[in-house]
Recover the amino acids of this structure.
């Protein structure tokens, strides 16, 4: 039953769901990559005294963090563009009650 409902109401939004999933996957990759860069700064920059490596890798980390913020905003925007949320068939009855309800 749930599968039938999902097919019925999500078919219209398949592209939007795909975009949101792709954006969330990119965010996940970025969030998991930042600690590796931090470890590289310690291992190859601080330990070896390579100040240039610290600055370049730190700038790259900052760029990734800013990109993650933009991806987050875009993902929320696309997720909010879902239209009626699949409630189209249900709200029409609530907004326009039938004669039997008004006649009581």
């Amino acid at each position: 039953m749930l599968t039938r409902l999902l097919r019925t109401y999500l078919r219209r939004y398949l592209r939007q769901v795909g975009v949101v999933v792709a954006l969330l996957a990119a965010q996940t990759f970025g969030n998991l990559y930042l600690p590796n860069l931090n470890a590289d700064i310690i291992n190859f920059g601080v330990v070896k005294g390579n100040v240039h490596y610290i600055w370049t890798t730190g700038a790259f980390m900052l760029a990734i963090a800013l990109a993650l913020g933009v991806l987050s905003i875009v993902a929320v925007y696309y997720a909010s563009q879902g239209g009626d949320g699949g409630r189209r068939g249900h709200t029409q009855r609530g907004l326009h009650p039938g004669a039997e309800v008004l006649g009581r």
Remarks:
- The CA atoms of residues 4 and 64 lie 40 Å apart.
- The two ends are 35 Å apart (CA to CA).
